[in-house]
Amino acid sequence: CTGNGVCKCRVCECFPNFTGSACDCSLDTFPCMASNGQICNGRGTCECGTCNCTDPKFQGPTCEMCQTCLGVCAEHKDCVQCRAFDKGEKKETCSQECMHFNMTRVESRDKLPQPGQPDPLSHCKEKDVDDCWFYFTYSVNSNGEANVHVVE
């Protein structure tokens, strides 16, 4: 019973938190916890303490690695640009496509949230349609709400 149960009449009786014919399947989900606090990053199921990624783009022990995904900054750049500056590729469709985050304007880069806060934070530097740099941060809190802080 792999040390996780006792054998009675050639059948394993598993200790709490273990299952399977040989008690070799842990019911503990801690190894499946992604950095955002979700089981398997919300993109898989935790089976026997291991993530089975159901979204084929994502892989790794907690379904957090995506080789083909845009980075957080590039992914949200067009929406931040239209919401903050009313320009860019999504200017016409901004109100339909880009309302999925809370946005806060700040005066300068040193007013942006800094690393060390509880929510994972991405610092972004992107070019706008006029070839000018703009700066923003992107974070998701424990309630799953996305928050963007953008430098005016």
Automatic annotation (TrEMBL):
One of its GO terms (biological process) is integrin-mediated signaling pathway. The keyword Transport does not apply. Keywords: Disulfide bond, EGF-like domain, Glycoprotein, Membrane, Repeat, Signal, Transmembrane, Transmembrane helix. GO terms for molecular function: C-X3-C chemokine binding; collagen binding involved in cell-matrix adhesion; fibronectin binding; integrin binding; laminin binding; protein kinase binding. Transmembrane segments: none annotated. InterPro entries: EGF_extracell (IPR013111), Integrin_bsu (IPR015812), Integrin_bsu_tail (IPR012896), Integrin_bsu_tail_dom_sf (IPR036349), Integrin_I-EGF_CS (IPR057243). Pfam families: EGF_2 (PF07974), Integrin_B_tail (PF07965). Residues 73-152 form the Integrin beta subunit tail domain. Gene3D superfamilies: 4.10.1240.30, Laminin (2.10.25.10). This is ITB1 protein. Coiled coil: none annotated. The lineage of its organism: Eukaryota, Metazoa, Chordata, Craniata, Vertebrata. GO terms for cellular component: cell surface; focal adhesion; integrin complex; synapse.
